[in-house]
Amino acid sequence: MHNKTLAIRDAKMNVVDLGQGSPVLLVHGFPLSQNMWEFQILEFAKTHRVICPDLAGFGLSQCNEPRTDLRSHARDLSDTLDALNIQEPVVFCGLSMGGYIGWEFWKQYPEKISGMIACNTRAANDSLEVARGRRIAAKSIFKTGTQVLAQQMAPRLLYGDPQERKKQIQSSVEKIIESTLPDSIAAGQLAMSNRPDATPWLPTIDCPALFIGGEHDEITTTREMTSNAALLPNAQFIEIEKAGHLTPLEQPESFNHHVLEFLNSNRFGQD
Ligand code: MLT
């Protein structure tokens, strides 16, 4: 679906570039791929230019050096926008790890952001205990394999409603996790464990911002997201009902409605 392969330093980035208008950059979570935005790409591309990469090492994007810090992912994204010759600032929309990368992107390239959509994510870094768990997980993935990780992780990401549709989503999330390279999973865990606390940066994010949380998200609570949103000068928080950690996949209609309302009411790139 309108995929391009872009050579960025040691990486070959697989990127969807679809639609026209002000650009929206969709950044996936861990350990997922651009496929998690399958219900957004066509919808948003009706009115915007949608840029949706696989992060280096994930999905179909390859790299020689798996990224062990989030700043490198932010740099890849900045280089990707440059390679696409996108000169105007983008609305950065990141989910979970994609949101952690968003804070880093803001820190490094504030002039490239016109708006921020933070989905199921937080600004705080890991506690010592969580960071330690990630370092252990980064080693054990080579023994346990991605299939076991997929079976353990996918149900935690989704709200537990045993409907057919939910089962389909769960099996597609499992497939994405299973097909991720262990090297990239290990690097992603290390990158997240090393990330800085972005909370002090939040008051500086002065562009329009939308925070979206899932009512039943066990990984990022709506409570934490509400207090993060309150630290920005121009942010609102929306809770999506009957959703867990993957709001765009679980409740695409509601998710798309809120995002499009945000994009249209702020008229990004139209003034
Ligand atoms: C994600 O969805 O990106 C992960 O749950 C983030 C994390 O492990 O903190």
Report how far the terminal alpha carbons are from each other: 30 Å
Q: What's the CATH architecture?
A: 3-Layer(aba) Sandwich
Mean pLDDT across the residues is: 95
Biggest sheet overview = 9 strands, mixed
Which distinct ligands sit in these coordinates? D-malate
Name the beta content range. 15-25%
Total strands: the figure is 9
> What would you call the shape?
globular
Stretches with pLDDT under 50, minimum 5 residues = none
**Gyration radius from CA atoms, angstroms:** 17 Å
Structural class: alpha/beta
Using the coordinates shown, work out and report the CATH topology. Rossmann fold
Question: What is the structure about, briefly put?
Answer:
By secondary structure, this protein is an alpha/beta fold. The protein has one domain: Alpha/Beta hydrolase fold, catalytic domain (Rossmann fold), CATH 3.40.50.1820. Helix 2 crosses helix 3, helix 4 runs antiparallel to helix 7 and helix 5 packs antiparallel against helix 6.
